[in-house]
Design goal:
The protein is an alpha/beta fold. Helices cover about 35% and strands about 15% of the residues. The strands form 2 sheets. The chain has an 8-stranded parallel β-sheet. The longest helix is centred in the C-terminal third of the chain and has 18 residues.
């Protein structure tokens, strides 16, 4: 199985503080993730002063009267902040990624020489934004929270017409409720998306725990994206639905184990189990002492462990054969014992 690309989503869980952001990078690296991802936005040009917060954001921040603009201003990262994060990622041996939320941010990230663009769910109906993404010439991963198949098709068309090669597009199934109820996950939608659009698929997870992203890998997800934090009790909109450091590491380890466990799809005896075959299987043994010249009947034989002798599947070939010599009860019968 191809190695799953694991994106540890720091998002805005840095709370606007560089040292927290750096520690998040370290945690993602220590967990074994491939990318650590942040969010890039020019807030003034991407959020109206009248935009309300989502209900989960109100609940998680405890600031129901705060506007979306007021909230996201706290998390806006300038170019210098990005450069510091990229430098720290290189030091920690993990790749940097950020989701742009506006055209200017796409350009900023392109200028910073990121190696792919991750389009968040909320931007897949933003035509000028998608055109800008396509113009970068970079591979694109886009999330599909709140989307219909028609939305996804429209996004695909913009990217393809903009010059992005189909093989460079990965679509992430996603639900944007934080946390996502298990009943709303609908992992089978990954298969529908793969079959309809003929592209690689993955899963961006907002459930509590690690079970669902692990299951997604077993269903063929080639990318997993999951929010993480240093501490779920920290203030902010996304901490509550994020993994803590130990859980992130558990998820990465579990995904790597699932990758190995998927195998090649061929049903065959493996090296590890071959030594158990004769121990666990049975062969034909004698049910009692048998004297030379006896014509074997079904009552003369018993199917017992170990295997390695005549298979019980050959029983009908054994019945009616003549025994060549005296044989003891519980002896494993061999073809040389009978005519």
């Amino acid at each position: 199985m191809k190695r799953t690309l694991i994106i540890a989503e720091a998002g805005v869980n840095h709370n606007g503080e560089l040292e927290i952001a750096k520690r998040l990078i370290e945690v993602a690296s220590e967990a074994g993730a491939d990318y650590v991802k942040f969010q890039t936005a020019k807030v003034a040009s991407s959020v109206s002063k009248y935009a309300p917060k989502a209900e989960y954001q109100k609940a998680n921040t405890g600031l129901a009267d705060e506007s979306m603009l007021e909230m996201v201003k706290k998390f806006e990262l300038d170019k210098t902040f990005h450069e510091e994060l990229i430098k720290h990622c290189k030091k920690c041996g993990i790749r940097f990624l950020s989701s742009p939320f506006d055209v200017e941010s796409v350009q900023l990230l392109h200028d910073l020489k990121i190696d792919l663009i991750k389009v968040p769910s909320g931007e897949i109906t933003n035509l000028p934004y998608l055109k800008k993404v396509a113009a970068t010439g970079l591979p694109v991963i886009f999330s599909t929270g709140m989307a219909t198949m028609e939305d996804i098709e429209a996004t695909m068309n913009v990217l393809l017409h903009g010059g992005v090669k189909k093989e460079n597009i990965t679509i992430l199934h996603c639900n944007t409720q934080y946390p996502t109820p298990y009943a709303d996950v609908n992992l089978k939608a990954m298969n529908t998306i793969r079959e309809k659009f003929g592209v690689a698929v993955g899963y961006s997870d907002h459930t509590l725990g690690i079970e669902v992203p692990i299951a997604a890998v077993s269903l063929g997800a080639v990318v997993i994206e999951k929010h993480f934090t240093l501490d779920r009790s920290m203030p902010g909109p996304d901490h509550v639905a994020s993994l803590e450091p130990g859980e992130l590491k558990q998820m990465v380890n579990a995904i790597r184990n699932i990758e190995m466990a998927m195998g090649n799809g061929i049903k065959e005896v493996t090296q590890s189990e071959s030594m158990n075959r004769d121990i666990a299987r049975k062969s034909i043994h004698l049910a009692r002492n048998i004297v030379k010249g006896t014509v074997l009947t079904e009552s003369d034989i018993a199917m017992k462990r170990p295997g390695g002798g005549i298979s019980p599947m050959e029983m009908e070939k054994v019945i009616g054969k003549t025994v060549k010599k005296n044989l003891e009860e519980d002896r494993m019968l061999n073809w040389d014992d009978i005519d």
